[in-house]
């Protein structure tokens, strides 16, 4: 299986058929996975924690949006066997099991489009941000064997994410700093320059404005780690911006 990173956009993406069609096309062009393992920017917990292995109601982890968003349902099967396999791959440091932790919108918003039938088992694990970039990359390497077992590893975030500099009217174009950061990320990933990616704090242009906080960037480190174990191509099935400066770029390794 390939490895992916999705720009999950605003929660309202769930109702956007045009943008959702881009995600659906991307998913349709990939092999059908046996299950999905998703690492979202919206669950940061160190050490790695494993989310629910039972079907639960979704987590609506946002506020101030239309009522309809809080009524969306996405009843995908749970993946308890995958949870056991993840725990085994992580070895001595057994992850915390959080049966109370339902899928957040960084998971179910893109999944509504990528797997609309909700018939693929999904497991979410936490993003251990406090461990640092190198540890996040190594986490991906530890999880890489899942690719040979039919599991689609997906990081969910946004390669440019500054909520103070977005325009929900969609009338504005991306500013130069957003374009520059997005292009740096694309070039670094395409060249498989993983050392620079890991050391992004010293290499990425305009990091403080592109990511006032870095949780939406960090899932790409896990995805890149999982892709680093062999020589696979890098492509960008979705590109561009929305709401002014929010990157829509999605990444596929393999």
Helix % is: 25-40%
User: Do you know the CATH architecture?
Assistant: 3-Layer(aba) Sandwich
Proportion of residues in extended strands:
15-25%
Mean of residue pLDDT? 96
Secondary structure tally: strands: 10
Give me the strand/helix succession.
Answer: EHEEHEHEHEHHHHHEEEE
> How would you sum up the global shape?
globular
Pick out the low-confidence regions.
Answer: none
Q: Distance N terminus to C terminus?
A: 7 Å
CATH class: Alpha Beta
Main β-sheet, spatial strand arrangement: 5-2-6-1-10-7
Q: How many helices in DSSP terms?
A: 9
Tally the structural domains.
1
CATH superfamily: LigB-like
Question: What's the story with the biggest beta sheet?
Answer: 6 strands, mixed
The helix/strand class is alpha/beta
Q: Nearest-angstrom radius of gyration? A: 17 Å
What name does CATH use for the topology? Answer: Protocatechuate 4,5-dioxygenase, Chain B
Short précis:
The chain has 254 residues and is an alpha/beta fold. The chain has helices at 17-28, 80-90, 105-114, 133-143, 176-190, 194-198, 200-203, 207-210, 219-227, and strands spanning 3-7, 35-44, 49-50, 96-97, 122-127, 151-157, 234-238, 241-242, 246-247, 250-253. The strands form three sheets. A six-stranded mixed β-sheet has the order 5-2-6-1-10-7, sandwiched between helices.
